[in-house]
Every structure is written in C-alpha cells, then in structure tokens.
Amino acid sequence: MTATDPDTLADRVQDGDLRIHELEDHADPDTAAEARRLLVERETDADLSTVGDYAFPAEQAESTIENMIGAAQIPMGVVGPVPVSGGAADGEHYLPMATTEGALLASVNRGLSVIRDADGADARVTKNGMTRAPVFRVDGVAEAAETVEWVNDNVDALREAAESTTSHGELLAVDTYVVGDSVYLRFAYDTKDAMGMNMVTIATREACELVEAETPASLVAVSGNLCSDKKPAAINAVEGRGRSVTADVVIPGELVEERLHTTAEAIAEANTRKNLTGSAKAGSLGFNAHAANVVAAAFLATGQDEAQVVEAANAITTMEAREATASPRSDKRRSREREDGTTDLYAAVSLASLEVGTVGGGTKLPTQAEALDILGLRGGGDPAGSNADALAEIIAVGALAGELSLLAALSSRHLASAHEDLGR
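That's the 3-hydroxy-3-methylglutaryl coenzyme A reductase sequence above. Prediction below.
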C-alpha cells in the first residue's frame, strides 16, 4: 500500500498522525472521502457502501461540504407541467422535488392539474433584497443617534464600499435600528441570480469598516440576527428577505366540485379557521397549511440552502369564494349565470422570504444542475436575476398547488383516506 492508499490514510488518522479534515492535503478528494468512509466504518461498524456510491467527482463538492464521506441520495420526482404567467417565468414548467414524504408529490400534482385546467397561475416577485445586519457597540443613545445620522447621510459611500467587493451585487438600502447601546444596520442587496449570502456578508463587512472609521460605533458581529437568517423572524415576514413572491389563480366552481370534491366556500372556510385563525391562536409566523413542504422538496432538488426553508415558511395563504368572472388568460367567459349556483375559488400564496439562486452553492452539483435544467434555469439569466426570479415564481405556484390540494382534502375530509390509499 502507498502513503496515499485509503487504508493507509485511515490508519494514519486512527494513529493520530493525521486529522480527519487534513486528508485532502495528502490525496485527491475521492481518495480522501474513501479513507474517511473506511475510518468511520471501522469505528462504528456501519456499512457505507451505498453512501460511497455517488455519481460525481468529489472535487465538485469541495465548496459545498467538508469531511466528505459520500452522498445522501433522496428520491426525486417531478410535478406538472403547469402554465405559469410570471414576471420572469412564462409558459409550461415541470417542478422537480426531492423528498422522503410519501403522498407529497401526488398532492401537489393534483393541485397543479386543477390549476392547469383553470388556465394556469399568475406569479410575481414583488420585492427583492438579501439582507445582512451587523450589530455595533456604542457608549449610549447619543453615539447611537450620531451613528444613525451618519449612516443615513452616507448611503452612497456605503454602497461604494460594499459594491467594491462584488461584480454582481447591488446595495439597495440600509435600515437602522437602535436598542440601548447597540446599533443594527440592516443592509439589503440585489444579488441577481445568486442566493447571495456569502456575497452580502463580504460586502457588508467592507461597509462596516467605513462605519467604524467614520462613527463612534465599534463592530461586534457582522451578523446581529436582525437579518434574520435561518430563524423564525417577524421582520422577514413583514419586510421580506431574498425574494417576496406571490402566486394566485381563480378556480372555476365546477372544477372545484368535480376535481376537488368540495366547494369554494368550504375551502375558504377551512383556510380561515385553520390557516388564519388557528395560526394566529398558535402565535405562528406562517399562516399556511404546508408551504414549507413544497419549498423544502424544491430546495433539495435544485441545490438551495435547505436551512432557509425556515424563512420560506413565512407564507400567507388566501382563499376566497368569488362570484364567477372572466379568466384573464382565456376567451372562456365565466361571468355567465350559473344554474347550479356554484362560485369560483380565488386562491393565493404569498411567500415573504423565499431565498433562491440559480448560480453558486449547491446549484453547481451535477444532480441539482440537472434539476435546474428541467426548469430551464441553470446558471445566470438574461437579464441578470431573471432566472432566480423565475425559480421563485415557479416554486410559489408549486406551493399554491400544495395549499389548494391539502385544503381541499381537509374540507372534503379525504386527507386520511388519501394517505391510506397511497399506503403512506
């Protein structure tokens, strides 16, 4: 055996001659991963043959993980296609989803099928801004006010400093907050087609140096949790983070009854009592049925930061029974008198803080890149940011389909039987 043989490398780690994170310094990434697997197998009696059976060079994952031993394989499916009329997304789209939750894709696909028969959904990104909020120390409120005044008067200088670190990111705004002797600055950036957390952290650190040089404030941490990243936070539900996106559709009353086996009024009531009143009583920041379910599966499939599903759960679902109207994308008139008295269903989901990208991070991994190819959204868009906008809009339509399907199942009392029928 050579010095770079996986068994030898594993022996050296066990003997204390090497640390487990140093293996890539002595072998190529795949050999290092194999040595690490051997070490873990020896010490745990686990069989990692499946973990080690991955389909891409380990070198491609170096920027996404440390101490690699292999890959976790999650079943991936696809739902759709469904027509989406968006600000960036246009036409019919399949949505890839990776999950281990049985019945999820079947439910979403049912909702998408109904949306399709209703001539598709509208979707729009209404706000865009990835945030980072450093916290500074001052002696008291006088210095805090001095710092805030300087920041408000010098946003252009902060923009120049921040944007000197990136060829893509643009500083949109800096909001100030004072709590005693702490000053928080919430920087918001347009990160184009990148999700952008690393970008905005580096840019904000550069801007912080200018704040320290020109004000009495001293930087405590480049993230003061007012961002707020990967935590439930009202500020994200109100102000947004990443992309704020809404999708909506009007479902004809006859479709609701024929395909969802319930009525617009019943779905609207279930939404009000469950998603609005129930969520308010629980003190929830999310007023929806299971939007995070669809977001999580789409995130895993397309290489997003899965922990940011926390912010994506800041979603409000709206359901309303409406008098029949004309479809905005069809010549079919629905304003006619209904002999059966059915009403249409207006359905919408608004995700305040959906953080997605089509470049960087996990989007570069082969499986995730192929999933983005299904959507036609791999890499940067033209204009910049349009691919990430389109991804946000399509995910929002998927979340809308999930909300529609689940609320219909609840209002028709078919949820438990559906799971039984699918053997879940």
